[in-house]
Amino acid sequence: VAARRKLIVVSNRGPVTYGRDESGARVARRGGGGLVTALRGLVGHHDVIWVASAMSDEDRRVAAEAAGEAFEETAHDGASYRLRLVAHDPAAYDGFYNVIANGTIWFLQHYLWGLADAPDLGETQRRGWTEGYEPVNRAFADAVVDELGRHPDASVCFHDYHLFLAPRIVRERRPDALLTHFVHIPWAQSDYWHALPADFRCAIHEGLLANDVVGFHTERWRRNFLDSCEALVGAGCDFRAGVARHGRRETRVVTHPISIDPDEFDALRENEAVLAEERAIAEDRPELLVVRVDRTDPSKNIVRGFRAYALMLEHHPELHGRVGMLALLDPSRQSIPVYAEYLAAVEREAAAVNERFATEAWRPVELQIGDNFPQAVAAYKQFDVLLVNPIIDGMNLVAKEAPVVNARDGVVVLSENAGAYEEIGAWTLGVNPFDLEDQAAALHRALTMPDEERRRRHEAIDAFVREHDIEAWIENQLVEIERFDGIPTV
Ligand code: F6P
């Protein structure tokens, strides 16, 4: 059990977001996304001050009432922590979130540009950077410095690609602070970073190198990062030891794959809302059910997934009427045009498969657009084949969550470019996410796999995830901190 320690956790999306219910009363809802879910476990065991953006109108009201300071909040399990919501100018936040973090850095780090036609960098990105990404990072850094003034012994844990500049600003003002940063998405290879202007890419690398520790989910992203630190800002890197030297500083660069809380999913299996959704799925399900659960993000490769499934149907008419695909898709980042267009393309592709193959008695694809977590867990229980075929993905927690609750020895078809592949790939059917024939063949092999092999593969993934759970990940972060501050973790 780790010692109780003081942590300043910094992420764009917070653990809760505020709204109003029908009666007009203020309600706190769980913040969405894998990162926030994963970090929630920290709160019960440590003195956490969580610094996050005020995202909803009600968040901004809450921030104003607290005069921008941290206030006491209670987690779903009763643990208390302090929350500090940073309210940004809306135009600055738009440049930060839509133009740079998600519209540019996300695309770069997931190789989503073909380069022949994208990106087109111009005034929008320049202003998004100087009037959005920079000032929002400065506002986060100001809040952290303020909290460090009150709690000088606290360790700072930055998260993700929204906050690449903040560590350097904090470092300039607090040279001795213990700063860590966890990057939850892939790290692109150094040549691809040249798709960004030199000042953007250098500021990003130098911002990260102001930390004492930088963490990634896989060896692959860690190696890419060390390589691009060397190539782009001339850092001296020891790849084996995982150290980058830049100026007079040394940064430890580590790999700690994130995971899930299996107890939470064991409890969800029997949850009323999940059981109700499961009854609905079970009533309608075909003999063989393929499931996918994703945000509608171009990196998730949903369109190619439908094409591969169609190809499998083309090659295997004997499966017509027996198999169905249930795609549960959460609409994501719809204020960014490419995301809105991608969702439309996903809907068109699903309709095209149905148009081509459906009969009066059989619909090959069932598409549900919405954010329905109980339904996702119900589908996790019911799948025979889980399709997780991202173009590239930092980790992909669906690949870990679904097997833990699955009741049918379901087979996972997994992209070799998902971070999870480094850990559980051997027990999945690995696929090249760009190769439709490869994915079609893997779907067919998974659908026709003998029971004994299904069971063996499923049990192996289940056991691995239960052993390498979220608590182990959190513990690893704390051990990294302990190396620097000398306070024993155990
Ligand atoms: O993968 C990175 C990540 O931050 C996840 O933790 C999370 O699920 C997702 O992106 C959320 O994105 P957003 O905050 O834009 O909805």
Tell me briefly what this model is.
With 490 residues, the chain is α/β, with parallel strands linked by helices.
Topology:
Blueprint: E1 6-10, E2 16-20, E3 26-30, H1 34-45, E4 47-53, H2 57-65, E5 71-74, E6 80-86, H3 90-109, H4 123-150, E7 155-159, H5 166-173, E8 178-182, H6 190-193, H7 198-208, E9 213-216, H8 219-233, E10 236-238, E11 243-246, E12 249-255, H9 262-269, H10 272-284, E13 288-295, H11 302-315, E14 323-330, H12 337-357, E15 365-369, H13 373-382, E16 385-388, H14 398-405, E17 411-415, H15 421-424, E18 429-431, H16 436-447, H17 451-467, H18 470-485
Parallel strand pairs: 1-4, 1-7, 4-6, 7-8, 8-9, 9-12, 13-14, 13-16, 14-15, 16-17, 17-18
Antiparallel strand pairs: 2-3, 5-6, 10-11, 11-12
Helix pairs in contact: 3-4, 4-5, 7-8, 10-13, 11-12, 11-16, 13-14, 14-17
This protein binds 6-O-phosphono-beta-D-fructofuranose.
Q: Evaluate the radius of gyration.
A: 23 Å
Structural class based on helices, strands and sheet pairing: alpha/beta
Please tally the β strands and state the result: 18
Kindly state the mean pLDDT as a whole number? 95
What strand order characterises the main sheet? Answer: 5-6-4-1-7-8-9-12-11-10
Helix content: 40-55%
Poorly predicted runs of 5 or more residues? none
What is the first-to-last residue Cα distance? 6 Å
